[in-house]
Design a protein that fits this description.
The chain is of the alpha/beta class. It is about 25% helix and about 25% strand.
Amino acid sequence: MPQPEGAALEAVRARREQLKQKYLRPKAERPATTVGGVHHLALVARDVEETIAFYQDLLGFPLVELVENRDYRGSSHFFFDIGNRNLLGFFDFPGHDHPPYSETIGAVQHLALSTTQENFDATKKRLDEAGVSYVGPDRGIENSIYIHDPNGVGLEFYVQELGVFEGTELV
């Protein structure tokens, strides 16, 4: 997609700075959040078995539950352990024709997953061995790579502690 340039780029940057000044509070002045964290993300899978094989067998995220969706008869609802008591969930909807993934308003651009350097290196090795392409760390960011799952969902493997972004503790 085309990126803004010239005056348009400067206007976007100025707007971001205005928003930052208006809404971003210093850490010591921020109120406590009103929730305990992410219980699970719920995404749509094209194929249950393909999704399980990708996440469990290739990426090493254990499948921890596979049940019928309580809201749609015949649909599967399944969960993977992504660490820190967080779950990545998927639904399928048999009989529905869903369009392919599209990066658009309301869509998940990517999930950034915290990992250690050791697991980051092991993930890259498994991806290389399986012939799965990824982006990074060729963009000058040595501690992250990006892939897409079989459903088009973007995943980032990021060597960074939870709550920290580029070395700055955010929470």
